[in-house]
Amino acid sequence: MARRIVQSRLRRGLHVLVVLLLLGALGTPPAEAARLKDLASVKGVRSNQIIGYGLVVGLRGTGDKAGARFTTQSLRSLLSKMGIALDPSAIRVANVAAVMVTADLPPFARTGAEIDAVVSSIGDAQSLEGGMLLMTPLLGNDGEIYAIAQGAVAVGGFSVEGGGAAVSQNHPTVGTLVGGATVEREVPYSLVGRDQFEISLHNPDFTTARRTATRINEAFGVRVAAARDSGTLDLKIPETYRDDVVGFLARVETLDVVPDKSARIILNERTGTIVMGDRVRVSTVAVSHGNLTVIVNRTNQVSQPAPFGNGRTTRLQNTDIEAFEEQAKLSVIEETVTIGELVRALNAMGTTPTDLISIIQAIKASGALAADVEMM
Q1: Distance CA 147, CA 115 (A)
Q2: Helix, strand, or coil here: 126?
Q3: Which residues are registered as beta bridge partners of 161?
Q4: Where is pLDDT greater, at 338 or 360?
Q5: Cα torsion through 188, 192, 195, 199, rounded to 10
Q6: 328 — pLDDT class (breaks 50, 70, 90)
Q7: Which residues contact residue 370 at a Cβ distance below 8 angstroms, ignoring those fewer than 6 apart?
Q8: Which residues, 6 or more positions from 232, have their beta carbon under 8 angstroms from its beta carbon?
């Protein structure tokens, strides 16, 4: 009797374990899955660039030189508005720098919100360290003022000169205003009353668009999404979310989608950087790579005559030329190898990054490489 009870409990425990494993397998997204909010965005919900021209004051002689006329004119115009009239020739701008102020106005930013701004010198100032940006209006593409920037400039570098020597670190002519811009005008955009939206994929792809639409429809149980093309999805709000548009979009953007990847290789010949995707495939191809090295050595010598002789000292130059070629091994790369096998095969040949770039370009030219090769 006790044995039957134990066996029954074991069976129930195994059944519960199997159910938990199945639920865990169903609830865990694939390893390559990503949230939809990282793959796409709602059309119209984006940041807007704003820009303005201003003056940074309070510098320790590291501002614009006297030849920067726009700085002198700006300072004179500013002082004239405050009732101070000056001769332009009497103005010294060593402690003042003309700058451009840029910022990104985030979507749904409301009046009074504080955003970050970037301050960049446009004159010949040496550093903006310790400077204070005066009140600067930031305008949009339509010419309207959307924010006002003012405050201390934080510079992540320095520049020191003295005695004919100079030391600098990072870019002291570019600084940041952390929360130094205040929003004065809102970008007109509202979600109220809308019954459909457009989803734009960051990387257009037909397979990814199809998977995304299918994943959204499965999550809501009804057809609410349809792929219009490789980069756009039409999204309709279901009846149950008519009064909760934000909740609907919040659920959509947290769905896990497995994006499709194209076979692509990025080459940067200047830095020797090579980046390959896991979709890269190579057909059967033989690769041979070798280098021819030529060394020229010149030796300067002097022919000195014997003591009390009538000869003259003569300069001689001997030149030795040596040439040798490294042994090139012929390696065969099998068909449909993975990226790991391709890298191991090329490394076994003792190739450098520069050689790898040449080999990859040659394999692509031969038609054995099924991938897009892009040069940076």
Answers
A1: 9
A2: coil
A3: 166
A4: 360
A5: 50
A6: low
A7: 263, 280, 281, 282, 283
A8: 43, 198, 199, 200, 201, 209
Query: What residues contact residue 201 under an 8 Å CB cut-off, 6+ apart?
Result: 39, 40, 208, 209, 212, 230, 231, 232, 233
The verdict on pTM exceeding 0.70 is no
Provide the 10 A C-beta neighbour count for residue 183.
21
Rg of the Cα trace of the chain? 34
Residue 136: predicted pLDDT: 95
Q: Where are the domains of the chain?
A: 48-183, 190-257, 265-302+313-375
Determine the straight-line distance between the first and last CA of the chain, rounded to whole angstroms: 76
Identity of the residue numbered 345: A
- CB neighbours of residue 359 within 10 Å: 19
- Determine which of 64-78, 101-115, 190-204, 297-311 has the lowest per-residue pLDDT on average: 297-311
pLDDT at 297: 57
Annotate 184-219 with DSSP letters as a single string.
-S------TT--EEEEEESS--HHHHHHHHHHHHHH
Tokens of 300: 């300067």
Q: Is beta strand 158-162 parallel, antiparallel or unpaired with respect to 165-169?
A: antiparallel
- Please say whether the beta carbons of 221 and 238 come within 8 A: no
CA atoms of 252 and 360, how far apart (whole Å): 41
